[in-house]
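Why should sequence recovery work at all? Because a backbone constrains its sequence more than one might expect. Tight turns favour small or flexible residues, buried strands favour hydrophobic ones, and helices have their own preferences. The token representation captures these environments compactly. In the example below, the structure is given first.
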């Protein structure tokens, strides 16, 4: 009798784990399929060797939203308004063996952070910032 209960408990735990994994995979697929979305890892600028968090960013009319990849949260983890968003610098990671990525240093209000993205995603980010209404001042380096 006890062996049967343990077996049922193990099966329930495995079923729950598979369900959570399926939900996360579905969420990633949905976010990736949205118009204006791109893969983008983020971390605070300080400390300089802080951990990267994988995510997906999406352009909106007046903001850039960023979701963590491995989360079930229905809302973005971060949201930056275009009027206060500034690209401070950009470095190719070719020297680090990742020539297909840029390290983009950004500032939103007083918050400095870094993003990694493909060259195509960076071109989209720069275009999105430059397409801001003329009343806002955006600096891109």
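From this structural description, the recovered sequence reads:
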């Amino acid at each position: 009798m006890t062996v049967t209960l343990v077996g049922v408990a193990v099966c329930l735990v495995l079923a729950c784990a598979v369900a959570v994994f399926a939900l996360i995979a579905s969420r990633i697929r949905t976010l990736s399929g949205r118009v204006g979305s791109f893969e983008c890892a983020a971390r605070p600028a300080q400390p300089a060797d802080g951990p990267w968090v994988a995510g997906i960013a999406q352009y909106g009319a007046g903001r850039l939203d960023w979701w963590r990849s491995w989360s079930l949260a229905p809302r973005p983890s971060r949201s930056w308004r275009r009027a206060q968003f500034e690209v401070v610098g950009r470095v190719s990671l070719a020297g680090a063996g990742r020539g297909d990525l840029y390290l983009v240093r950004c500032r939103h209000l007083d918050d400095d952070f870094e993003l990694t993205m493909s060259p195509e995603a960076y071109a989209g980010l720069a275009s999105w910032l430059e397409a801001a209404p003329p009343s806002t001042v955006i600096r891109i380096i």
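A few observations help interpret the result. The domain at 33-130 is CATH 2.30.29.30 (PH-domain like).
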